[in-house]
Structure formats: C-alpha cells, structure tokens
C-alpha cells in the first residue's frame, strides 16, 4: 500500500500529519523562546537571540499554516469511530478554528508590532518588509493583543491536548490514531 499524501476517510495523509507535528514543535519552540528570554538581562545578546528565534519560529508557523490549510482540505475528512456526539463535534471544530486563527493571527500581530516599532522583522537571516509605518501607539496596541491571544493560546493548546488524550484513553476511539504517523 502506497503512502498517501492526501487525507482519506481512513486517515490523514502524510502531508497533514507532518505539518501538524512540525507546527507543534515550532509552536512549542516559539513559546519557549519567549518564556525563557526573560532570564537574560535586557539588552543582552542572549535575550536578543531568543527574541529573534521567537520571531523566526512564529513566522515559520505563519508560512506553514498557508500550506496546512489546503492540505487539510485535500481529499476526504477521516472518520472518527465511534462517531462523536454532535455537540462535541461542533466544539472540536470551534477549537480547531480558534487554533488556526491563532496560527495566523499571532505571527501577523507580531509582524505588525515590529513594523510599528520601526524594528527589523528577522526571518532566517532575511529582513521582511514592514507591514505598516512606525507608530508607537499602534505598536503598543498590537503587542497587547498579541500577548493576550498568546495567553489564550496556552489554554487552547492545553484543551486540544486534553481532548486528544480523552479520546485516546477514555473514549478509546480512533481520533488520535488518525493523526499519528505510520499505519
């Protein structure tokens, strides 16, 4: 049996699975870089390096989500067996929608924040163009929204992980297995 890149009713394709787990690692790296940045003094090279990694990881998520969205739509939607109750299925869709909104919105807000501060937007040694002109007021506003949504992201990611574990160990359905590599 050939490995499918597209989703089928039996399983997500290798592209969707790969992007899911790569993006998970990038999201963890993004949050980690930001969280441990504060152990370095302001103005230090360590703090600056972690900030650059935070930007780079976040923008990597932003780039990959644009590949992940069509990959998610490619082919069929895998069938969860036994089927979830309708309300639970709707809640799952809402959480997935919110996670995708964060994968787009958080990096975009970070890019807007740096642009409004008049700072470079680093991405793997490149400098991305500013999205808007310099404005300290806008920078403050974008940063506040970015930080608030990032905090909400902890909750949503935790909810997503808890749901996966619930399905695996309590419901004992195939939800997690659909997204695991291998057959």
UniProtKB/TrEMBL annotation:
GO terms for biological process: respiratory electron transport chain. GO terms for cellular component: plasma membrane. Pfam families: Ni_hydr_CYTB. Keywords: Cell membrane, Electron transport, Heme, Iron, Membrane, Metal-binding, Transmembrane, Transmembrane helix, Transport. Residues 12-182 form the Cytochrome b561 bacterial/Ni-hydrogenase domain. It is a multi-pass membrane protein. It is found in: Cell membrane. GO terms for molecular function: electron transfer activity; heme binding; metal ion binding. Its main location: membrane. The chain crosses the membrane at residues 12-32, 52-71, 91-114, 149-169. Belongs to the cytochrome b561 family. This is Cytochrome b561 bacterial/Ni-hydrogenase domain-containing protein. It comes from mine drainage metagenome.
